[in-house]
Amino acid sequence: MKVAVLALQGAFIEHEQVLQRLGVETVEIRQLKDWQQPIDALILPGGESTVQMRLLKELGLLEPIRQAIADGMPVLGTCAGMILLSQGYLGTMHIRVRRNAYGRQLGSFHTTGSVEGIGDDVPMTFIRAPYIEEVLSADCQPIAEVDGHIVAARQGNQIATAFHPELDDDTRLHQLLISLQ
Ligand code: GLN
């Protein structure tokens, strides 16, 4: 299988390294022609969601990627990638997200927690992180909470995390992504 990693900006290399450790072929999406090949799953990395959105539009990638996700392509969106999946951005996930939700001082922290469908003791590194303010439909489920805030959700083949699984030594979320077809 081949997993695409959006490589316009942000923390994409770390995702590629996790996938390589799992023995999965990766392809970087930098322009429209990179998208025009058989792809089995997609990772939207952390970074700066406003910059990523602008580049997706400028490069003509926004609509093809949105359509593929809407058609069921498995996707993992982390941090800014979760913002991209939310309402007002690509809008494929029925979640409303608050950007930079922890403020400047508490914007970056590490904890561990349970993720439904993954297990316990999942390491969670937050960097100027968003959280999910509201899940907007019944086909979208919150799968993790930290301090009373939703920090991960799943809707069919779409997985979104406010934290950065690629920065810790735990590959379970990536394994979940590649198990989806
Ligand atoms: N604060 C960033 C945003 O709003 C997200 C930060 C991250 O991806 N680590 O896009």
Automatic annotation (TrEMBL):
Coiled coil: none annotated. It comes from the Bacteria. It catalyses: L-glutamine + H2O = L-glutamate + NH4(+); aldehydo-D-ribose 5-phosphate + D-glyceraldehyde 3-phosphate + L-glutamine = pyridoxal 5'-phosphate + L-glutamate + phosphate + 3 H2O + H(+). GO terms for biological process: L-glutamine catabolic process; pyridoxal phosphate biosynthetic process; pyridoxine metabolic process. One of its GO terms (molecular function) is pyridoxal 5'-phosphate synthase (glutamine hydrolysing) activity. The keyword Lyase applies. One of its GO terms (cellular component) is glutaminase complex. It holds the Pfam family SNO. Its EC number is 4.3.3.6, 3.5.1.2. L-glutamine binds at residues 47-49, 99, 127-128. Keywords: Glutamine amidotransferase, Hydrolase, Lyase, Pyridoxal phosphate. The active site is at 79 (nucleophile), 164 (charge relay system), 166 (charge relay system). Pathway: Cofactor biosynthesis; pyridoxal 5'-phosphate biosynthesis. Belongs to the glutaminase PdxT/SNO family. NCBIfam families: PLP_synth_Pdx2. Catalyzes the hydrolysis of glutamine to glutamate and ammonia as part of the biosynthesis of pyridoxal 5'-phosphate. The resulting ammonia molecule is channeled to the active site of PdxS. In the presence of PdxS, forms a dodecamer of heterodimers. Only shows activity in the heterodimer. This is Pyridoxal 5'-phosphate synthase subunit PdxT. It comes from Xylanibacter ruminicola (Prevotella ruminicola).
